[in-house]
Design brief:
alpha/beta, eight-stranded mixed sheet, 15 helices
Length: 510
């Protein structure tokens, strides 16, 4: 790759990777990653050796992750207090580590002796999907920016309820391979590639018209509260009373039977919060015959502390404790205790909650709660299904400032709603607070980092009963049980589960 032509191809691969990132944000640019990936396939076809193909994959991954997850630097330096050179080095290492996965795909596909159409439309998509799965599993996993997320606004999204995000990634990669075949091949192979493209688009588009859940039950009013507390002030002792007053005011103005506050909305251990304040919140919720969910750290008798969501209101108090923690942000891997000396992260070594926790029975619903980036792990989100009727994510994305991360996180939440056929409610500190419907569309949202200090969102929706095939398919494909037990489990339990359906009203305060 030392020749001018070799360096130009590396540069093209880097640019292609970087150019695909906007499709993972707020914009419906689903063709962009397919074009970028087809460009990488074209470069791989022209590569002289597996080593060259690996370097091209690495360049693509470097461009993709250096642009796509550059917000890691914001978290480490701007809010974590890490010195600039060390934060830049850590961000670079993080991104280049993830670039190794497309590099491995490039190397392996070049080593396999298969005809070009099979390689580009089957082998490479399978390797790409496997690499994404490994990336989301190794070292607790970082499944951010899986290819399938970029397809939420396109026809391939119709396959998500059956195959999950990785199935969509596979088909998107296959579509990119077909597009590459149209460029590099001639004759019958081009016709085959065109047929594959058309078949994928038609199948996905047809499945988008399927209603995997149907309305059932009485309407439910929900209020999501976004306090917009600046991250640099969140844990400042002098700001504590103002933070509590903000959320009290929002809760009193809300109209929901279910009220949801963000992650660590109360920046103090639950047992240290004044009982009178908790009683005030309880009175607000019980007056409507409902409940309030609030993010607050809790301490157990063994002095272990958890990132948790606690219910307060008409139902008995229930707790969800976060189980999938963020490395370095919420727990320190073995051998990395020195990080404490360079990072200013309060409560940086949480204990893990139980892997299997029952949905919270609040406001007449069975709510599956997840905290922060837990919703990036689809196989974990379906654990409470089909019992859970509603998904709730509470987050504090203020750690990443005004970066690409909030919009990317919202897209992940949209995929979880689409996969499960349930509404996802997202309550965040600074944004994006939103309601996502079972088709993965944003029904309502508040602006991220709103300049006004307080904001609230109210809505009304109806619960839904899922179709039996939907529950069978998610059990079979996502939990990887045996075909017989999965079919029995899906058929016998689907009639008892439900989700949330239609947004009717939206109320904002500023």
């Amino acid at each position: 790759m030392k020749s001018p032509a070799g360096r130009a191809r590396l540069a093209l691969a880097f640019v292609a990777g970087a150019a695909s990132v906007p499709a993972f944000g707020d914009w419906p640019l689903f063709p962009l990653p397919l074009i970028a990936l087809a460009t990488l396939y074209w470069l791989w076809v022209r590569a002289d050796s597996p080593r060259v193909a690996a370097w091209l994959g690495f360049a693509f991954g470097a461009g993709f992750f250096l642009v796509g997850v550059s917000w890691v630097y914001v978290s480490l330096h701007d809010f974590g207090g890490m010195p600039l050179p060390l934060a830049a080095l850590a961000t670079l290492a993080f991104c280049l580590y993830h670039a190794l996965f497309p590099a491995a795909v490039g190397y392996v596909q070049a080593r396999l002796a298969t005809i070009r159409p099979v390689r580009l439309m089957l082998v490479v998509p399978a390797l790409w999907t496997l690499a994404e799965w490994l990336r989301g599993w190794l070292f607790t996993g970082v499944p951010w920016l899986a290819l399938g997320y970029s397809q939420l606004d396109g026809p391939l999204a119709g396959l998500a309820p059956l195959s999950g995000v990785f199935g969509v990634s596979f088909l998107a990669a296959a579509a990119a391979g077909a597009a590459a075949i149209l460029v590099v091949e001639r004759g019958r192979r081009r016709l085959t590639a065109l047929a594959v493209l058309v078949a994928i688009a038609i199948a996905g588009g047809a499945l988008r018209t399927v209603d995997w859940t149907t309305p059932h039950g009485a309407p439910l009013a929900v209020s999501l509260l976004q306090g917009n507390v600046p991250q640099e002030l969140k844990f400042v002792p002098g700001r504590y009373d103002e933070t509590l007053a903000t959320y009290t005011r929002l809760a009193e103005r809300s109209t929901g039977r279910l009220i949801v506050l963000p992650e660590t909305a109360i920046p103090r251990f639950l047992h240290e919060v004044e009982p009178a304040y908790l009683e005030r919140l309880k009175a607000i919720a019980t007056a409507r015959g409902g409940d309030l969910l609030v993010g607050v750290p809790i301490l157990d008798p063994e002095r272990r502390y958890y990132n948790a969501v606690v219910s307060i209101g008409a139902a008995p108090t229930q707790i969800y404790a976060k189980s999938h923690l963020v490395p370095f942000g919420e727990f320190l891997p073995w051998g990395f205790g020195w990080v404490v000396a360079v990072l200013e992260i309060p409560l940086g070594d949480f204990a893990r909650g139980a892997e299997h926790q029952k949905p919270l029975a609040v406001a007449g619903q069975r709510v599956a709660v997840n905290i922060c980036w837990e919703d990036a792990f689809g196989e974990e989100i379906i654990r409470p299904l089909p019992e859970a009727t509603l998904l709730v994510n509470v987050s504090n994305v203020a750690w990443f400032g005004d970066s690409l991360a909030p919009a990317q996180h919202l897209r992940i939440a949209r995929m979880r709603a689409l996969e499960t056929g349930r509404f996802m409610l997202r309550a965040t500190n600074t944004g994006v607070t939103a309601i996502v419907d079972p088709r993965g569309a944003v029904a309502a949202r508040l602006p991220a980092s709103h300049p006004v200090s307080v904001a609230g969102l109210g809505w009304r929706a109806a619960t839904t009963r899922p179709n039996c095939w939907r529950e069978y398919s998610s059990t079979r494909l996502s939990r990887a049980r045996s075909a017989g037990s999965a079919a029995l489990d899906g058929w016998t339990r689907c009639t008892a589960s439900s989700a949330v359906a239609l947004s009717i009203e939206r109320i904002c305060w500023a």
